[in-house]
Amino acid sequence: MNEKFYEIIKEPIITQKSDELIRKFNRYTFKVADNANKVEIRNAVEALFKVTVVSVHTLNVVPKPKRKGKYEGFKSGYKKAIVELDKNDKITAFSV
After folding, report:
1. N or C: which end of the chain has fewer CB within 10 A?
2. Buried b (16+ CB within 10 A) or exposed e, 9-31
3. How many C-alpha atoms does 72 have within 13 Å on its Cβ side?
4. Contact predicate 91/29, CB 8 Å
5. Domain locations in the chain?
6. Region 16-37 average pLDDT
7. What pLDDT was estimated at residue 96?
């Protein structure tokens, strides 16, 4: 069953903005599978990190056009989930 959870939660997103969300609101940001819904994301985070999830917000990040010299292309798009945890829970894998 854990293999399915690792397929849903691909990787954490660690930026200045996500770091601020962790400090202020106890919200963690993850890159998730494109076909994952909010219930699957909630179950995966609760099972993998042993925490209580209060809410899940998802959004699709659109591909951005990029250019390197004469070559043009697109930066790949992905699905992002912002997960709010109970005020007593923390995920220690994030460096906050």
Report:
1. N
2. bbeebeeeebeebbeeebbbbbe
3. 2
4. no
5. 2-85
6. 96
7. 56
